[in-house]
Specification:
With 462 residues, the protein is of the alpha+beta class. The protein is 29% helix and 26% strand. The chain is built from 12 helices and 23 strands. The strands form 5 sheets. Strands 18-19-20-21-23-22 form a 6-stranded mixed beta sheet, covered by helices on one side. Strands 5-4-3-16-17 form a 5-stranded mixed beta sheet, sandwiched between helices. A hairpin with a 5-residue loop joins β18 and β19. It binds zinc ion (ZN).
Length: 462
């Protein structure tokens, strides 16, 4: 490596972002509160709460995305092109045909000339693509596998045999020839990164370079790769001696995970009220982006008696995000109703709508609603089909403007959304991919008296 080990002053300054009076300037602030039963993470943009995550200790059995196991194949279901795998969780995990890793030597000879099998999705070449799952996996076989989707309700976790270990700048894919650089990076930067990585890339393993690698030095990339490689070696060592089913690697706590994915110079800080977690996060950031380590702050150092969530007005914003009704600045409101199949959002004007210029009032109200709906969808992490009933507008350009405002507001959401044109009945239909179980779900349980219907039937009349 011919790059200097130290980051030069100019790079350091750029990486650090802007500072004012020695304090970092950034749009975002992360506040982490470790409670008795759960850790909560709040992301603020300015003073507005935009994202909120809850991680419970009891979720250990269900929050397992990214964990690596030595699993034991329980049964193979040719009809479903899937296998059930015991990974030591209450429900068996499922491994679909397309996520099975293929090794030519492992394949039954009968796989060739197996013309009847229909081709399945997957990255397997030639004969392997036509191999049936029962030729690739046998009951009682032990396999190394990684959870790619948490178990939800009655559905077990989803597995992949290809393992990936995410770092700050790169993702390591052990025993693979995958090699890719994020297409979102400019051409010149991709060339520079490729030059560095051609030297840093460990033999026999694949690498994917993340967008976060933009501007990273050779030294930083090497440190990231080295960390992941030693992590992979520990997993292999454990796998060699473990008896299936066994957990080989657990993803770090949610705070560290969120910081790994999100924390950069756009954050003016991370405030954590738990000493142990603070040290874990600070050490992680110091090992990856040392210039940002002093932005990780322990809240216990403050003599403010208020909790971190109160100090940053997060409590009151969470309360509002749990309510059906959200007030708009000019007196209107939105009502958010969730059903099994979709979420319906009703937009209302304030009580005192003047009759002088109804269209203009409605238009302003709808614009406010468009911004607020986008914010609430992200904060509440509502997914699936969403239907928004804006108030009817006569003027076509006003309708278009409301949809445009809504789309622009949604663009700040990292999660993929798709918005369709206003329907004949004045409804806006959209879809959103959900990240977690949702804010309300993570902080509540279904009412046991009415099972969530919201009313009790008078039995004396029946
Ligand atoms: Zn009830």
């Amino acid at each position: 490596m011919d790059e200097p080990a130290e980051v030069d002053a100019e790079t350091l300054e750029r990486r650090r972002g802007r500072e004012r009076k020695g304090r970092p300037v950034g749009r975002y602030l992360m506040v982490v509160h470790a409670g008795q039963t759960a850790t909560q993470i709040a992301v603020l943009e300015g003073r507005a709460l935009i994202e909120h995550y809850v991680s419970r200790q009891v979720d250990d059995a269900t929050q397992i995305d990214g964990n690596i196991y030595l699993g034991r194949v329980q049964n193979v279901l040719p009809g479903m092109e899937a296998a059930f795998v015991d990974i030591g969780t209450p429900k068996n995990a499922v491994l679909y045909r397309g996520d099975v890793r293929y090794d030519r030597d492992d394949l039954d000879a009968s796989a060739d000339g197996n013309g009847g099998a229909k081709p399945t999705r997957g990255r397997l070449p030639g004969a392997a693509r036509d191999a049936r799952i029962e030729q690739l996996l046998k009951p009682r076989q032990t396999i190394l596998c990684q959870v790619t989707k948490n178990p939800i309700g009655a559905k077990g976790a989803r597995l992949a045999q290809e393992v990936s270990l995410p770092g700050r700048f790169v993702v390591l894919i052990p025993n693979s020839d995958t090699y890719g650089i994020s297409k979102r990076l400019p051409d010149e930067e991709r060339k520079r990164l490729r030059r560095i990585l051609d030297e840093v890339r460990p033999a026999g393993h694949g690498l994917i370079v993340r967008t976060a690698a933009e501007g990273a030095t050779a030294d930083e990339l090497q440190r990231d790769v080295a960390r992941l490689l030693s992590q992979w070696r520990r997993i292999e060592e454990r796998a060699a001696t473990a008896k299936a089913p066994a957990l080989l690697y657990r993803e770090p706590s949610m705070a560290v995970r969120v910081i790994r994915e999100e924390f950069n110079k756009d954050y003016r800080g991370v405030i954590i009220d738990d000493r142990e977690l603070y040290e874990e996060v600070r050490d992680y950031v110091a090992s990856i982006s040392p210039e940002l380590a002093d932005r990780v702050e322990y809240a216990g150092d403050s003599d403010d008696p208020l909790s971190v969530f109160e100090r940053h007005h997060i409590h009151e914003q969470i309360h509002k995000a749990l309510d059906r009704k959200v007030w708009l600045p000019s007196g209107g409101s939105i009502i958010i109703e969730r059903t099994e199949a979709l979420t319906v959002i009703d937009v209302n004007t304030g009580r005192n709508v003047g009759t002088s210029n109804l269209e203009e009032t409605v238009f302003r109200n709808n614009l406010e609603a468009a911004e607020e709906v986008a914010r609430q969808l992200r904060l509440r992490d509502i997914g699936g089909i969403i239907v928004i009933d804006f108030i009817d507008m006569e003027i076509v350009s006003n309708r278009a403007q409301v949809v445009k405002t809504f789309r622009d507001a949604l663009a700040r959401d990292k999660t993929r959304t798709q918005v369709f044109e206003i329907s004949d009945l004045g409804l806006v239909e959209m879809t959103r991919k959900r990240v977690s179980e949702g804010l309300v779900e993570s902080m509540s349980e279904t009412c046991p008296s009415c099972a969530g219907r919201g009313f009790l039937i008078d039995d004396t009349l029946l």
